[in-house]
# Entry
Amino acid sequence: MNNKRFVSTFSMLLGCLAAFGGQPLAMADSQPLLCAAAEAVVCHKDGACERGPVDRVNLPLFFRIDPGSSVVHSLTEAGRRRTSPITGTTTADGITVYTGTDMTTGWTMVVDRSIGKMTLCLATPGAGYTVFGACLPDMAASKASE
# Structure
C-alpha cells in the first residue's frame, strides 16, 4: 500500500470535515454529494486480496452522487468521465443506501449523512471491492440550483 498517498487523501478528508467545525453535516436526502474514496480492498475469486489506494485498483478517487438525476458521476485516472445509474435509494436513521449498476458491475453505497462516512461495495464476475471514504454536501451543485 502506498502509505504516503493514503495519508495525503485521508488528511484532505479530515481537513474538509474539520471545515464544518465538527458539527453534524446534516445533509438532506436529495442534496448532491461530493465523495472521496480513501482506501480500497479488492479480493479476486482465486482468493488473492489487495489493499491500498483506490487508483491502485482502477477506481476513481472522487465521485459525485446526484440523487435528483439518479446518477453517480466519476472521472477515471485516464480522464474518462463515467456515469452510473442509481437504481435504488433507501434512507433510515440518517443513513442512505444507494444501489446501482455500471455495465457488468453491481454496487451498493452506504453514506452516514450526519458525519459523512461512506462505504462502497462493488461486485464483478471475478472480484469484490470494498471502498472506504467520506462525502460532503456538493455546495457548487446546491448554489447552481438556487
Q: What stands out?
A: The chain has one domain: 3-144. Helices lie at 3-18, 139-144.
